[in-house]
């Protein structure tokens, strides 16, 4: 078993979709389930289990019979180059076998094909035994932390697709490592048998249907958060915060005096204010004589023009240092912002470069406010 570090994930979430969350979202788009008839991945996975978890685990020759009966007992997660990222073994058990696991009469080592529900009858399984969730220790596509998150989210997706409604089933698992035990506890599993009470020598944890809702909520919460749309929404929020900070910086530097704005920026603001006044009888033009209010009618590019204008740039030079770099970062920010705000599709390059622009502005503005 592996540990899903939820605390780290949601600490990153509080940091407004920091690098970890962004990396997980990107990784989810780069992985898929491997082919069910890929013998090479299944063999490699069996070697990893026997080497890293349990040297007494089922041999690959035996496991081939299991997979022939039900290919879904083993699922590999691979990257776009078909490299093995990790895998999970989930056994749909016949009702009697599930009860015997919980009673301590059966272990993974004593299970046979007679205990496994065939693939054609998988929806009849009332008990799912989670035998393994493990990373390929040799994968280098993602950092271990990102790979762990992705593997578990893909397992949740797998369960929902093949064993829905998942909340009606009982789940069993032996905690074969401290990390695995931490994961089971965090996902609502209850300790049922101590290690000394099982022939396998590991404690048995069980998640019953009445307790499944909490575990499902945890995975759905994470899955929703790591979706592409959710990441873009969060990036949009971060861009909005950067715009507000840039306005505040401009107000501070030009002493709250609207006349210090570049003439073409003031002209565009006036045009927008008049247009708004024509549409809205309650619109208070007098309020927008003040600089903070006027800047509400500036877009990102006009904030850029203000900072880079010839008379004002010397006042901003110390904070932003290099004009060419600032122009490039504004471009990255504007491209991503415009695509999001106008509901256009955001390609990967625009998203990655926009993320880089967001991080750059956040760091630079943080230094200026320190």
- What is the strand content? 5-15%
Could you say which overall geometry the principal axes of the C-alpha atoms support?
Answer: elongated
Broad CATH class of the largest domain: Alpha Beta
Evaluate the radius of gyration. 28 Å
Strands of the widest sheet, in order across it, are 1-2-3-4-5-7-6
Tell me the CATH architecture of the largest domain. Answer: 3-Layer(aba) Sandwich
Low-confidence stretches: 1-17
**CATH fold-level topology of the largest domain:** Aminopeptidase
> Helix and strand string, N-terminal first?
HHEHHEEHEHEHEEHHHHHHHH
What profile does the largest beta sheet have?
7 strands, mixed
Mean pLDDT: 86
CATH superfamily of the largest domain: Gcn5-related N-acetyltransferase (GNAT)
Helix count from the secondary structure assignment: 15
Question: What can you tell me about this protein's structure?
Answer:
This protein is an alpha+beta fold and 370 residues long. The protein folds into two domains: 6-226, 3-Layer(aba) Sandwich (Aminopeptidase), CATH 3.40.630; 230-369, no CATH class. 54% of the residues lie in helices and 11% in strands. It is built from 15 helices and seven strands. The protein has helices at 6-14, 19-28, 39-52, 60-69, 95-103, 144-163, 178-186, 212-226, 228-253, 263-279, 291-294, 300-308, 313-320, 323-341, 348-369; strands at 32-33, 74-78, 84-93, 127-135, 170-174, 190-193, 204-207. It has a seven-stranded mixed beta sheet with strand order 1-2-3-4-5-7-6, with helices on both faces. Helix 2 crosses helix 6 (144-163), helix 12 (300-308) packs antiparallel against helix 14 (323-341) and helix 14 crosses helix 15. The longest helix has 26 residues, at 228-253. Mean pLDDT is 86; it is low at 1-17.
């Amino acid at each position: 078993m592996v540990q899903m570090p939820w605390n780290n994930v949601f600490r990153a979430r509080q940091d407004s979709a920091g690098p970890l969350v962004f990396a997980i979202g990107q990784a989810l788009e780069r992985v898929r389930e491997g082919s069910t008839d890929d013998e090479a991945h299944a063999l490699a996975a069996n070697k990893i289990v026997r080497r890293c978890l349990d040297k007494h685990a089922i041999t690959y020759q035996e496991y081939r019979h299991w997979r022939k009966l039900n290919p879904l007992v083993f699922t590999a997660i691979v990257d776009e180059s078909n490299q093995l990222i990790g895998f999970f073994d989930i056994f749909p058990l016949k009702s009697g076998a599930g009860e015997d696991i919980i009673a301590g009469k059966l272990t993974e080592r004593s299970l046979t094909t007679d205990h496994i529900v065939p693939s054609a009858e998988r929806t009849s399984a009332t008990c799912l035994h989670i035998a393994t969730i493990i990373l390929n220790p040799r994968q280098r596509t993602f950092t271990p932390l990102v790979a762990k998150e992705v593997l578990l989210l893909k397992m949740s997706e797998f369960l929902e697709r093949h064993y829905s409604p998942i909340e009606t089933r009982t789940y069993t698992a032996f905690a074969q490592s401290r990390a695995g035990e931490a994961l089971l506890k965090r996902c609502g599993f209850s300790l049922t048998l101590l290690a000394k009470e099982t022939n396998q020598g590991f404690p048995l944890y069980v998640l019953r249907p009445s307790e499944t809702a909490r575990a499902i909520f945890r995975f759905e919460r994470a899955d929703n958060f790591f979706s592409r749309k959710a990441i873009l929404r969060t990036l949009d929020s971060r861009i909005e915060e950067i715009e507000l900070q840039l306005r505040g910086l401009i107000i501070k530097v030009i002493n709250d005096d609207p006349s210090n704005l570049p003439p073409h920026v003031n002209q565009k603001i006036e045009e927008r204010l008049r247009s708004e006044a024509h549409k809205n009888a309650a619109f208070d033009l007098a309020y927008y004589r003040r600089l903070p209010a006027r800047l509400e009618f500036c877009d990102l590019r006009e904030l850029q023009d203000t900072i880079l204008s010839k008379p004002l740039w010397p006042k901003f030079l110390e904070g932003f240092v290099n004009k060419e770099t600032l122009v490039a970062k504004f471009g990255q920010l504007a491209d991503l912002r415009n695509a999001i705000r106008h509901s256009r599709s955001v390609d990967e390059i625009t998203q990655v470069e926009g993320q880089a622009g967001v991080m750059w502005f956040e760091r630079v503005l943080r230094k200026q406010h320190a």
